[in-house]
Amino acid sequence: MEKVLTIANQKGGVGKTTTAVNLGVGLAELEREVLLVDLDPQANATSGLVPDARVRASWVEAGVTTYEAMIGQIELRDIVRAVSRSLFLAPAGTNLVGAEIELVGLAEREKRLGTALTPVHRQYDYILIDTPPSLGLLTLNALVAADSVIIPIQCEYYALEGLSALLATIRRVRDTLNPKLTIGGILLTMFDSRNRLSHEVAQEIRQHFGDQVFRSVIPRNVRISESPSHGLSVLDYESKSAGAQSYRALAAELNQRDSVVLDASANQASPSPVQDTLRKAASKES
User: What is the CATH number of the domain that holds 63?
Assistant: First the structure.
C-alpha cells in the first residue's frame, strides 16, 4: 500500500494532531504498519503517544527528532521509535521551531522531508504526517512528500475559514512540486449532534464537497479531550467511547476507500465543486 498521508489545515484547533494519533492507532489495530511523523514544533503527537517527558527530552538532547532528519544530520530511520507492534513514531521536539528558518538556506528546501522518507517508504503501509497550524515550509514539505491530504474541518461557524487558501496551496504544490498529490478526504470533527449549527455546517460541507467528505464523523467527546493528558490515544484510553468508535470507523473507511484525485485536466466540461473551488482560490491568490 505504502501511502503517505499529510493531515493539514492551517486553522488551529480543528483536530489535526488528535486525528493523526487516533487514526494511526486505528490503522495499527487493523494490522497495518504505520509510521506517524510529528512535524509540528508543539510536538503534541509525540507527547500524546509518549507520556514520559524525560524520554522526550532525551530524544531532543540526543538529536534524534524530525528536526535533525529534516536538516540532514541523521537518517530518518534512526529516529523512529516503536509505540506498539504496528505503530511507530518519528518524534518532534521544540527544536523544530528553528527548522522553518534553517530550511530557507538549504538546497531543495521543499523536498527535505520527502527525501528523508524515501528510504523507509516500503517498511510501512501508511505514513501519517502531522503538521503545524500554518502554511509555512514545514507544511509545504509535508505536502510535497505526501500522496494525499486529509483535511480536518471543525463543525462550527468558521469551519471553511481559510480553506480556500489551503486548497490553493495544494493546487500549486500539485502543479509545481508534487503532481501525484490528491485530496484523500475531508474529515468533519467536533460534531455535536445536539447542536443544530453542527448539522447545518456538516450539511453545507457535504453539499459543497460531495464524496470527498468521509462518511465517518468525529464527535465532540470528552474522552478524546482527556486521552492526550494520559499519553494515550482515545482508543487505548477509553476503547468503548464514542470518540474511539468514530476513529475506528475512520480507519476502516480509509483502509477501504480509494483516494479521490484532484482535477486531472483543466479541460473537463463539468468540474467538481472541489475543482471549481481550487481554480477560484488559485485565481484570487495570483
Answer: 3.40.50.300
